[in-house]
Queue: 2 jobs
Job 1
Amino acid sequence: MRTVLGDIAPAGLGVCDAHDHLFLRSPQLPGQELDDPEAAAAELRAFRAAGGSAVIQWTPYGMGRGAAELPRLARESGVHIVAATGLHQAAHYAPEVLERLRSGPAGLFVAELTEGIGGTGPRAGMIKVAGGFHGLDAHARHTMAAAAEAQRATGAVIGVHLELGTGAQAVLDLLCGELAVPPDRVILGHLNRSPDLVAHRAAAEAGAYLAFDGPSRAHHATDWRLPEALAALAEAGFGDRILLGGDTTTAGARSVNGGPGMPHLLRRHRERLDIALGKDLVTQFLTANPARAFAADWARAPQDPHKGRETRRAPTA
Ligand SMILES: [Zn+2]
């Protein structure tokens, strides 16, 4: 498990919000930027107070990840933070940014995973990519090919933004079929947004992890379908594939601004899932499953020149 403060044993991860954002900036969300370190710190404190122990930030390259702030925020809050490399959909970037990366984002991804973000920042612990609505455009295919290459080089897991929860099979065909990524190195995100139980089941049968990361203000429309979707997967024997996240994408969705934010995942959201599914299963979704999904065999990664530079921190309760 590669956190912004160094590698930790997966068992030390604790209660994990498997898909969220402390920092995020996109031309698609003007005026809604998550760019305030003090608000991020307050949100982490609220998450910690609700019993949270780890946050996986799925903000990729070029979207204001706040990489320089993340180690301090992790240290001060006592919450493990995992950062991401990778690329989102083309619409989230200025064309010249993508042009610069045209020749091969794989090198960037590997460097951010093994050396550090921007060379001197914390190392990323996952690769984020994105599909489109029921399909994959040239940018998505190019980015996923680079992600597969970086995955092979480092062992890192690939987390996929599915547009409105769709296109899981197209992503699996490309990543695990054409590009030969092991299915258990793929996390399909936003499946909650498309409560298609047949697609969920097929993705689980393929061996991927399934992230249901819904309960923030921006993506509430299908929250009410979540318990039945998770129950169906668990009954089919796929309880070990499920991850839960908050996916706070706007300042207004933060708990410190009156929204549900990260604590909601562990309060109301968890409570209703406990009622529907039982506490043991929900605890597994929040602890053992993310510990397995985000673990990686970093030993096979290229030699890290900064090895020993990061301070290893004690696992938190
Ligand atoms: Zn997200």
Note: The chain has one domain: 2-6+19-298.
Job 2
Amino acid sequence: MLREEAAFFATRYEDVVREPDSTWEAWVAEAAQGVEKVLFVADDEEGMLGVVGAFRRLDPGEVQLVSLWVDPRARGRGVARSLIRVVAGWAQGLGAGRVVLFVQEANTPGRALYVRAGFRPTGDREPVGAGRPGFKLVVTATVGELLESRA
Ligand SMILES: CC(C)(COP(=O)(O)OP(=O)(O)OC[C@H]1O[C@@H](n2cnc3c(N)ncnc32)[C@H](O)[C@@H]1OP(=O)(O)O)[C@@H](O)C(=O)NCCC(=O)NCCS
């Protein structure tokens, strides 16, 4: 995911593999509790179709969606939209009213997906950073908008 589609993620594969396994084991263990952060996997009988993470931001009314990825063999079937709705449901359960995320300006499919799912740009953008050119845009939606958004 980070290696094959590096251009779409601000996090770099080479940085991630430098971290000790314990960092990611702790992340997953905390996500399994689903209180401050969470990880959802979509799968079928053939295996994993996609993944998405989310965490509660410092502002407890906001959840940040991260690391959305769908296996190329499963794309175009609504998997990403389903994962976004699952995150919105998780945010609602926490009492958060808004979902926020960053998408790279150059990620045309990603930007189209988020608009289709109900997000809109805030107008803010930041350099991608970590040695990457370009900018990432901030987009946001209310939980209600995401849950009401239909195919
Ligand atoms: C972007 C990505 C998550 C989309 O996953 P997906 O499961 O194929 O998306 P969906 O089938 O749920 O598509 C929902 C909407 O997104 C838009 N969309 C998805 N892929 C698109 C593409 N390649 N080109 C244009 N629009 C696209 C469409 O509007 C689509 O709605 P429609 O089918 O009614 O037209 C997937 O291509 C991916 O994993 N890309 C690489 C990683 C990435 O960019 N992640 C996001 C980082 S912010």
Note: DSSP finds five helices and six strands in the chain.
